[in-house]
Amino acid sequence: MYKDFTQTINDDLFRRFFKLWQNVRDGDALPTRKAVTLRDFAPFAPDLLIYELPAPDDLRCRLMGSNISDRVKAYSPDTNWLDLVAGDVREAGKICWGNLFTMPCAGLMQFSTGFLNGTSRISRALLLPMQHAPGVVNLLALATVSDVYNVGDPRDQLIVSHDCFQSNYIDVGFGLPENVPEAQDHKVLDEAFGDRIFTG
Q1: C-alpha 85 chain-centroid distance
Q2: What are the tens digits of pLDDT across the range 121-147?
Q3: What is the mean pLDDT of residues 72-101?
């Protein structure tokens, strides 16, 4: 059933994912990339992603679970995911992603994706920071997807956040980004519409 997406963290799947991430932390420090083993996170593997931000304008996906790769098809580690974000929210997306990496903090996102086959769905993702190397943060993400809400013509490339983009920061011990609201609704998903497409 649909509810305010900022409460996604209370869904059972996301609560278990967040708890496992907490369990691999060393005290209050971020978990290290080495501590985040695929064996431990195996129950989430089909919907798991790992992101890195080599530069403020360059968002890369370094691991993509099978459910996600089946939907997005032919995207490689060289794909800059910010290039796929709809132009009217690209700057907001860049700022949101940048804050998650540099704070660091956790985040929730809700966004639309138009896939190559012409279908569109809404994704919800919980993004958790981990230490890749000294001073370098990656994001470990779990993403779920709604039913198809639109079918159009096939596309040459994905388009992200064309119908919906909402984000929310979560303090995991290092504070929240300054001078920005904790929750940002750039393109809000209508609640009645959400009731129809989130059937899980």
Answers
A1: 13
A2: 999 999 999 999 888 999 999 999 999
A3: 92
Task: Give the C-alpha separation, 75 to 60, whole Å.
Answer: 10
d(CA 102, CA 111): 21
Q: How many residues does the chain have?
A: 200
Does the pTM of the predicted model rise above 0.90? yes
Which tokens hold the place of 128? 């958790």
∠ CA 151-88-107 to the nearest 5 degrees? 85
The C-alpha atoms of residue 123 and residue 72 are separated, in whole angstroms, by 12
Strand 48-55 versus strand 136-145 pairing type:
antiparallel
Write out the DSSP string of 82-145: GGGB-GGGHHHHHHHHHHHHHTT-EEEEEEEEE-TTSEEEEEEEEEEEEEEETTEEEEEEEEEE
- How many Å apart are CA 172 and CA 174, to the nearest integer? 6
Q: Dig out the tokens for 47 from the structure.
A: 């919907």
Measured from the Cβ of residue 26, the count of other Cβ atoms closer than 10 Å reads 10
Which class in CATH covers the domain with range 5-197?
A: alpha beta
> Which tokens sit at 10?
């209370």
User: pLDDT tens digit string along 43-63?
Assistant: 999 999 999 999 999 999 999
Tokens of 6: 């900022």
Alpha-carbon gap, residue 58 to 152, rounded angstroms: 29
